[in-house]
Amino acid sequence: MVQHANERVAYHNGEIKPESRVLVSFRDRGFKYGEAVFDTARTVRHKPFKLEEHIDRLFRSMRYLQIDSGLKREEMLSISHEVLERNLHLIAPDEDYWLFQRVSPGVADPFLSDGEARPTVIVECTPLPLRARAPLYRDGVRVQIPATRRTPPDAVSPRAKTQNYINLQIADREVRAQDPQAWAILLDHDGNLAEGLGSNIFFVRDGELHTPRARFVLPGISRETVIDLAGEEGIAVHETDLDLFDAFTSDECFLTSTSLCMVPVASVNGRRIGKGGLPGPVTARLVEAYKRLLDFDFVAQYTDKL
Ligand code: PMP
User: In the chain, which residues have pLDDT < 50?
Assistant: First the structure.
């Protein structure tokens, strides 16, 4: 099969090939049972940011699901670098990529015992949706809290990044049915704030940061980055139970995610957060620290596309 000049390539079970040739069996357990893990790093000026941390989290997710990719950490790293290198010519200098690793146990099924015991491993990249998300930095995110609760950690731990996003998708659809631009942040089964489809949440009150405990959420790499930066800035951070009272009485609120780094929240369930413009002073200070860490203005990368 011919590769189109503008077609990206991806790694699939030992081979780097055009994306259109990456085909997964309908009997793959990732498809049949949602039994798979993934992780997502981003590039900053075409270089991966904290890729090792993302790969470490991928390996923890694999251990939780007892999936063996058959690859060592260093191999997964070098494959990720290679896939990225081979696709960089397809994006503009002011764009960046999401870089994904996806692993399932493959088609072998313990109930049927006739499959081939070979995991499915895919490493792929796709451009960040810069233009679509640019308005979030100008207007702030409208957060809505759905009635759907986050999967409790005693059922499936949210600390693993599994390929099964049904809980988060249902919550997101519930919210978007009411406000197509809103982002869902789910409550956990105790009524405390947890996380969204692809983001962690922080609140600022009296100059200090508050974020849900890692037991109930994916420990985001950007969440960790903000916690580290706050430490360097002398801003206290509390990882604690937070409910709607905390949300409504906060001075500032922001989300963190790999693609967005940090983005201010304008409102929670329609209630405006804070008094002044966006971002608030503590959020702005951390955004500046994040930019210094990256040596890159990630906000301008988005807002230049407005
Ligand atoms: N929670 C969930 C459920 C996610 O999928 C993500 C995105 N990976 C996050 C939080 C944010 O994590 P990170 O900062 O590592 O992107």
Answer: none
Residue 2 is predicted with a pLDDT of: 60
Pocket lining: 223 vs ligand 1, CB cutoff 6 Å: yes
3 state DSSP class of 150: coil
Contact between 179 and 303 (Cβ < 8 Å): no
What are φ and ψ of residue 60, in 5° steps? -65, -40
Q: Give the distance (Å) from ligand 1 centre to CA of residue 303.
A: 22
List CB contacts of 253: < 8 A, sequence separation 6 or more: 143, 201, 202, 203, 204, 247, 264, 265, 268, 273, 274
Q: What pLDDT does 1 receive?
A: 55
The model carries a pTM of 0.97
Strands (E) across 130-240 are located at 141-144, 183-184, 200-205, 208-211, 237-239
**What residue's CA is closest to ligand 1, atom 7?**
198
Q: Is residue 2 part of a domain?
A: no
pLDDT, residue 197, reads 95
In the three-class reduction of DSSP (H, G, I as helix; E, B as strand; rest coil), residue 104 is classed as strand
Which three-class secondary structure state does DSSP give residue 282?
helix
pLDDT, residue 221, reads: 98
Residue 245, in any domain of the structure: yes
CATH of the domain at 231: 3.20.10.10
